[in-house]
Design brief:
The complex is a heterodimer. Chain A contains five helices and no strands. By secondary structure, chain A is mainly alpha-helical. The longest helix of chain A has about 35 residues, at about 105-135. Chain B is mainly α. In chain B, helix 2 packs antiparallel against helix 3 and helix 5 crosses helix 6. The chains are: A mainly alpha, B mainly alpha. Chains A and B meet through helix 2, helix 4 and helix 5 of A and helix 3, helix 6 and helix 7 of B.
Chain lengths: ~140, ~180
């Protein structure tokens, strides 16, 4: 089961993974004008790393993103979302009332939706990559 | 034309699901489940739900299949062991399935503007979301702004699933 020695797998992965990661960022940041958003973007982002890990092994993925980083990323996403909620509370609105985040309600809505979707994407990417690390590295 | 295509997709769905249930090779079952997710993502796209189709394709045909493959290659078990047939279970499932199909006759027609689900807040969201949130995608506006608290709950659910997997894998192992 050595994917590394398979030429087709190697070349396909080299061509696909940058596109996958770039597409994940595109879906994340354009979720408000087209289909997409945080959930889809997080999943696509994690798929890029999982494909590399399936072929080359998890040690080489850990050079870029360790298990600890994945956990911290997941926690940071939830904290960001809740943080936005508390920030709106501190600025005088109700919980997650984005109108209070900026000078005008419309800009506040944009800022709120952008940051909230970013939090969602971070948590999902961290969770799925973390689950993949656990599955491949635990001796069963 | 579209109706025939949707009927073909539905027939393929039934065939794929049956094959997933009866196949003894777990690798084959995983790949068939991935095909199932892709087919139902196509159906969601035909039903004019691109966000749902997107998520189903990414999660079902992408991440879920990859995680199954990683688990299969880690355990090394490629064949399922239990092959006995259970007739009462089949009868119960068949009865419930028939009841489900029967109740779909009571649903309103597809995309009926006077359906109960499309009254009240749906009209408000469709007409006011661009002016109040400045976002053209109504689904994102509802998900992230009008119903942002629900999305926070969903995020907690996924985060809890991740923590639960960490807990399961760090339990002391018996040999």
């Amino acid at each position: 089961m050595d994917g590394q020695s398979n030429l087709i797998l190697r070349e396909t992965v080299h061509a696909l993974i940058p596109l996958i990661l770039l597409y994940a960022f595109y879906v994340q940041f354009h979720g408000h004008v087209g289909p997409g958003g945080g959930f889809q973007a997080g999943v696509i982002f994690s798929v890029g790393f999982i494909i590399y890990g399936l072929i080359y092994g998890c040690e080489r993925v850990h050079v870029v993103i360790s298990a600890r980083t994945a956990e911290v990323l997941a926690c940071m996403g939830v904290l960001l979302y809740c943080g936005i909620g508390f920030a709106t509370l501190l600025r005088g609105g109700s919980f997650l009332d984005y109108d209070t985040l900026a000078a005008t309600p419309l800009v506040g809505q944009h800022v709120g939706i952008f940051l909230v979707e970013l939090g969602v994407g971070m948590t999902i990417a961290g969770t799925i990559v973390g689950i993949f690390f656990l599955i491949t590295e635990t001796r069963l | 034309m579209v109706l025939q295509f949707e009927l073909i997709l539905l027939a393929l769905l039934v065939a794929t699901a049956t094959l997933v249930a009866i196949s003894a090779n777990l690798f084959v079952a995983t790949m068939l489940a991935s095909i199932f997710s892709l087919l139902i993502a196509l159906l969601f796209a035909f039903l004019n739900a691109p966000d749902v189709a997107f998520t189903e394709a990414a999660v079902g045909a992408g991440a879920s299949t990859l995680l199954f493959l990683a688990m299969l290659s880690n355990t090394g078990h490629f064949h399922s062991y239990h092959k006995q047939k259970h007739l009462p279970a089949l009868l119960v499932v068949f009865t419930l399935g028939t009841l489900f199909v029967y109740t779909t006759a009571g649903l309103p027609p597809y995309a009926d503007p006077s359906a109960p689900a499309h009254q009240h807040l749906a009209q408000y969201f469709l007409s006011h979301s661009l002016a109040e949130t400045g976002v053209t995608n109504v689904v994102t506006a509802v998900l992230a702004s009008y119903r942002g608290f629900d999305t926070l709950g969903e995020l907690f659910v996924i985060f809890t699933a991740g923590i639960a997997v960490v807990g399961v894998f760090s339990a002391p192992q018996e040999h």
